[in-house]
């Protein structure tokens, strides 16, 4: 009976899947791993060449495992002991440890040596992006149809010549047994780019590998958070600490705070930290409590069935609740110097950065309520504020416009647009006496153009605040949830909660906040959304289905066995790789005891490494 119980426990445990970091035990296994993911999944392989006696190897190992958990389902992580796998180490020319090799479609695309966690993350992300971009195939019929629409002079034979070149490029570095009549991966996407450049359109590309289907026994996520700014990460920390194991889905580029290179001075308790530094700390804290991350872009959310389905560019995620924390992007002018001087005097947040330009002349661009608010905020600390507006009247509310027009430290330039923003190099203090000073480019003036006469005027200033509005990143929810009728694109919530018009979908941060748009208010609403999601799950009776499933199996088996344990049984929770050996050896000992033979003490046996499925 306990053998059956042991088997059931193994089956229940298998829900968690294979180890996040696989151990390569021989060359044959390694070659099969390469072939499988080059021809069946398209997933990149991240290899850690290590040695147990290597100090830096031990130092980076936890980061490697943490990264493997973060990119689970997006990349395959494996470790290779250089002292045991000489052939594999020699194949990649490993000369120092640790060495990390990044493989896409069976080919090395990058490598580096050393215990650099930032490099490891950067190269992993690059490998994942390449694998995703190469996950395409071009069918001959689609290429034929493309030429029929764009270059009818090419007959089928001519089109086939083009297609065969792509096939040859695809098979160029494949083993003979792996060569196929197909145009896929880099050659397919490269051909599509060339055709688009020539004809301004490209042939249809299909996905080469389908998104990995959920394995039987997998369970829906309880909380899926879309967005990884202050709102999303705050929600992740709260949900993770509540034991909900949230999944954060967001591209790696980051939001407004991620792009803020100067110090953030208005977030309590975090003085002298940049935006990326704050985001990184939040991310590390979320991971520490069990949050999982997927660096993907969400395309849509299907609420027609439960659990809901979050569709990304590479996979589908079943989930009971969704927290939308995608933020809102500032609208920019798109003029020369604007991008280059962001963080050097060009900003979209007067509340965040206005104090940095105390007693100086600053320019505000815009004519709505946001521009009026920014101008009034800046007038408290700046010597002079100039508002540049392209019309002869403000679009702002009458009250706000009158306050700006009547303020003694604010002037208005009507019927004008910004043509370019110029900068100048200044010396700033370096990291210490030895480093000395360093040069930095900051805003020096702005060139504005009169829309009526076309004349240019240069205004000397220390900063330019662009206040022409924000665009919430919520288009993927069109037709799914209700928007705020007073603020286009922002999600409508039901105060004081973060609930939207759809049960189980909650909104936090700038995706629903058209008024404050601050990192700290976003973080607060993210925490509120996590609490709302936790309450929703409790009310609907949606607990930890995976744990409940395993507990139910255990209860059933214990019920069948009457809860009695036979003598001479073995530990059902022991490593499955050693369970069989334990039973066999115990029976031999018992036989010898019955025959009164002397039982020799057995030497300790090294624990086998876990079995690895390819």
Could you walk me through the main structural features you see in this protein, from its secondary elements to its overall organization?
With 614 residues, this protein is of the alpha/beta class. The protein contains 16 helices and 27 strands. Strands 9, 10, 13, 14, 15, 16 and 27 form a 7-stranded mixed sheet that branches. It has a 5-stranded mixed sheet with strand order 1-3-2-4-5. The chain has a 5-stranded parallel sheet with strand order 18-25-19-20-21, covered by helices on one side. Strand 20, helix 13 and strand 21 (410-413) form a beta-alpha-beta unit. Helix 9 packs parallel to helix 14. The chain is globular, with a radius of gyration of 30 Å. The chain starts with a helix and ends in a 20-residue tail after the last helix. Residues 1-17 form the signal peptide. This is Thioredoxin domain-containing protein. Residues 560-614 are annotated as: Disordered.
Topology readout:
Layout: H1 2-13, E1 21-23, H2 27-41, E2 45-50, H3 55-70, E3 76-81, H4 86-91, E4 99-104, E5 107-113, H5 117-133, E6 136-138, H6 140-150, H7 156-171, E7 183-184, H8 185-199, E8 206-207, E9 221-226, H9 230-241, E10 247-249, E11 263-264, E12 273-274, H10 275-288, E13 292-294, E14 298-302, E15 308-312, E16 316-324, E17 328-330, E18 346-347, H11 350-353, E19 361-365, H12 369-379, E20 384-388, H13 398-405, E21 410-413, E22 416-429, E23 437-450, E24 456-460, E25 463-466, E26 470-472, E27 505-507, H14 519-540, H15 545-561, H16 576-594
Parallel strand pairs: 1-3, 2-3, 9-10, 9-16, 10-13, 16-27, 18-25, 19-20, 19-25, 20-21
Antiparallel strand pairs: 2-4, 4-5, 6-7, 6-8, 11-12, 14-15, 15-16, 17-26, 22-23, 23-24
Biased composition (Basic and acidic residues): 582-605
Keywords: Disulfide bond, FAD, Flavoprotein, Oxidoreductase, Redox-active center, Signal
Domain Thioredoxin: 1-129
């Amino acid at each position: 009976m306990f053998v059956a119980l042991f088997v059931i426990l193994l089956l229940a445990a298998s829900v968690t899947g294979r180890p996040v970091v696989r151990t390569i035990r021989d060359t044959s296994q390694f070659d099969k791993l390469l072939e499988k993911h080059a021809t069946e999944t398209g997933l990149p392989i991240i290899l850690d060449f290590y040695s147990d006696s290597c100090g830096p190897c031990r130092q980076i190992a936890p980061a490697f495992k943490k990264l493997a958990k973060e990119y689970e389902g997006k990349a395959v992580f494996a470790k290779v002991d250089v002292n045991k796998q000489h052939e594999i180490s020699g194949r990649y020319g490993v000369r120092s440890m640790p060495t990390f090799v990044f493989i896409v479609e069976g080919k090395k695309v990058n490598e580096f040596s050393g215990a650099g966690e930032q490099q490891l993350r950067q190269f992993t992300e690059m490998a994942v992006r390449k694998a995703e971009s190469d996950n395409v195939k071009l069918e001959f019929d689609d290429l034929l149809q493309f030429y029929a629409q764009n270059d009818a002079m090419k007959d089928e034979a001519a089109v086939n010549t083009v297609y065969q070149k792509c096939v040859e490029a695809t098979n160029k570095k494949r083993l003979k047994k792996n060569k196929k009549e197909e145009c896929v991966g880099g050659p397919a996407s490269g051909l599509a780019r060339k055709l688009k450049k020539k004809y301004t359109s490209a042939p249809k590309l299909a996905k080469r590998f389908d998104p990995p289907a959920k394995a039987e026994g997998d369970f829906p996520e309880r909380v899926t958070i879309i967005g990884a700014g202050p709102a999303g990460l705050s929600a992740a920390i709260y949900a993770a600490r509540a034991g909900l194991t949230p999944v954060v889905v967001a591209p790696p580029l980051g939001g407004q705070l991620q792009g803020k290179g100067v110090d953030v001075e208005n977030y309590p308790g975090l003085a002298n930290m940049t935006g990326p530094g704050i985001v990184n700390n939040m991310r590390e804290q979320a991971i520490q409590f069990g949050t999982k991350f997927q660096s993907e872009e969400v395309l849509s959310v299907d609420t027609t069935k439960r659990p809901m389905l979050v569709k990304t560019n590479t996979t589908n995620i079943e989930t009971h609740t969704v927290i939308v924390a995608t933020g809102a992007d500032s609208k920019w002018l798109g003029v020369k110097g604007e991008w280059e001087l962001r963080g050097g005097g060009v900003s979209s947040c007067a509340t965040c950065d206005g104090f940095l330009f105390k007693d100086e002349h600053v320019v505000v661009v815009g004519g709505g309520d946001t521009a009026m608010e920014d101008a009034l905020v800046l007038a408290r600390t700046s010597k002079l504020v100039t508002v540049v507006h392209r019309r002869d009247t403000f679009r702002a509310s009458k009250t706000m416009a009158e306050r700006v027009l009547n303020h003694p430290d604010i002037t208005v330039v009507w019927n004008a647009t910004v043509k370019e923003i110029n900068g100048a190099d200044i010396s700033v203090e370096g990291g210490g006496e030895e480093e000395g000073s360093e040069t930095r480019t900051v805003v020096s003036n702005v060139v504005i153009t009169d829309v009526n006469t076309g004349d240019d005027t240069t205004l000397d200033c220390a900063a330019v605040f662009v206040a022409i509005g924000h665009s919430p990143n919520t288009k993927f929810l069109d037709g799914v949830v209700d928007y705020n009728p007073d603020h286009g694109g922002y999600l409508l919530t039901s105060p004081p909660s973060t609930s939207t018009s759809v049960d189980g979908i909650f909104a936090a941060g700038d995706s629903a906040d058209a008024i404050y748009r601050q990192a700290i208010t976003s973080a607060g609403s993210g925490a509120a959304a996590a609490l709302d999601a936790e309450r929703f799950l409790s009310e609907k009776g949606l607990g930890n289905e995976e744990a409940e499933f395993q507990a139910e199996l255990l209860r059933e088996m214990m019920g069948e066995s009457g809860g009695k344990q036979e003598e001479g049984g073995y530990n059902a929770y022991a490593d499955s790789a050693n369970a069989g050996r334990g039973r066999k050896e115990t029976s031999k000992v018992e036989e010898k005891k019955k025959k009164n033979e002397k039982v020799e003490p057995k030497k300790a046996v090294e624990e086998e490494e876990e079995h690895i499925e390819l």
